[in-house]
Design goal:
It catalyses: adenine + H2O + H(+) = hypoxanthine + NH4(+). This protein has 324 residues and is an alpha/beta fold. The chain contains 17 helices and eight strands. 50% of the residues lie in helices and 13% in strands.
């Protein structure tokens, strides 16, 4: 099954590129930028990745990305990920990035976007990967700051495929970003949002009703609200589910308790993704494999999940037809 899952053409819709920073590259970039890390070795970094919840992960995630300073650093980060992804049978990657986390460290938007888009073009040339770029707002920061980031992204709107919403979900409801997402809509940008990861099903409802999103990132708590689950089934709004992330952040205690089989039975449009592969123990293939071990799904189920991701990806129609 592993060999078959590897050859299955897979599409990654939920990936934080900063969360693909492997400890080896973290050390290399720290050296290049003359930054002292609070770790003595790569092993020590990996040992620190023992999380209690989303916030305990986010603390290390924001700390780790401090090694990213130049456009070349962002380029190397993304190329490192694309190389691993294509080697495990990923054919299309949608990477989200967190501009506010870098702006706060004095790294300008043009530096971030130049490095990432240069890597996207090179991966397209080198491996035939297709890619899309999602600019995410930090929901634990003020909405006014997100709005100013959206304005600062003005010169780069053509390079963005969507905007998203991530970071600490509890007590930061989607409604906080109503105006920002309305502005993004006016600018012609598709919208996605994390909702129902740690936060309640109500946040999924708000993401749909207030932010007018076309996809929900995570969404695994939707079954707590049967009416919402029925709506998601009827509208086929996709959920980008990240099983290893949910396990490592203790959204579930055991993979066999993951709501995925229930979500599938409920007729929802599901996709399988990695979220932050360097922190959660693997990329897309590892997430498919974790499902194989926990749920013993057949090939048709995996084919269906991979197909769902192709159907709802931000990609040109010619590419979609070729992959379907
Ligand atoms: N959830 C919310 N925000 C994030 C995540 C996540 O898993 N990873 C990076 N930012
Ligand atoms: Zn995420």
């Amino acid at each position: 099954m592993k060999d078959w899952l590897k050859t299955l053409p897979k599409v990654e819709l939920h990936l934080h590129i900063e969360g693909s920073l492997e400890p080896e590259l973290m050390f290399a970039l720290a050296k290049r930028n003359d930054i002292t890390l609070p770790y003595a070795s790569v092993e020590e970094v990996r040992e620190a990745y023992d999380f209690d919840d989303l916030q305990s992960f986010l603390d290390l995630y924001y700390q780790g990305m401090a090694v990213l300073r130049t456009a070349d650093d962002f380029f190397d980060l993304a190329m490192d990920y694309f190389r691993r992804a294509q080697a495990e049978g990923v054919v299309h990657v949608e990477l989200s990035f967190d501009p506010q986390a870098h702006l706060a460290r004095g790294i300008e938007m043009d530096v971030q976007i130049e490095g990432l888009t240069r890597a996207m073009r090179q991966a397209e040339r080198e491996w035939g990967l297709s890619t899309a770029l999602i600019m995410s707002f930090l929901r634990d920061r003020p909405a006014e700051e997100a709005m100013s980031v959206l304005e600062r992204a003005g010169p780069y709107l053509e390079l963005l495929d969507a905007v998203g919403l991530d970071s600490a979900e509890r007590d930061n409801p989607p409604s906080k970003f109503a105006e920002v997402f309305a502005r993004a809509k006016l600018l012609g940008l598709p919208r996605v949002a994390h909702a129902g990861e740690e936060g309640p099903a109500e946040y999924i409802r708000q993401a749909l009703d207030v932010l007018d999103v076309c996809r929900i990132d995570h969404g695994v708590r939707c079954l707590e609200d049967p009416e919402l689950a029925a709506r998601l089934r009827d509208t086929q709004v996709p959920l980008t589910v990240c099983p290893l992330s949910n396990l490592r952040l203790k959204v579930v205690d055991d993979m066999r308790d993951h709501p995925l089989p229930g979500l599938l039975d409920a007729g929802l449009k599901l996709t399988i993704n990695s979220d932050d592969p360097a922190y959660f123990g693997g990329g897309v293939l590892d997430n498919y494999l974790a499902c194989h071990h926990a749920f013993d799904w057949n090939k048709d189920t995996f084919r269906g999940l991979a197909r769902n991701a192709i159907e709802v990806a931000f990609m040109d129609e010619g590419r979609r037809r070729m992959l379907l």
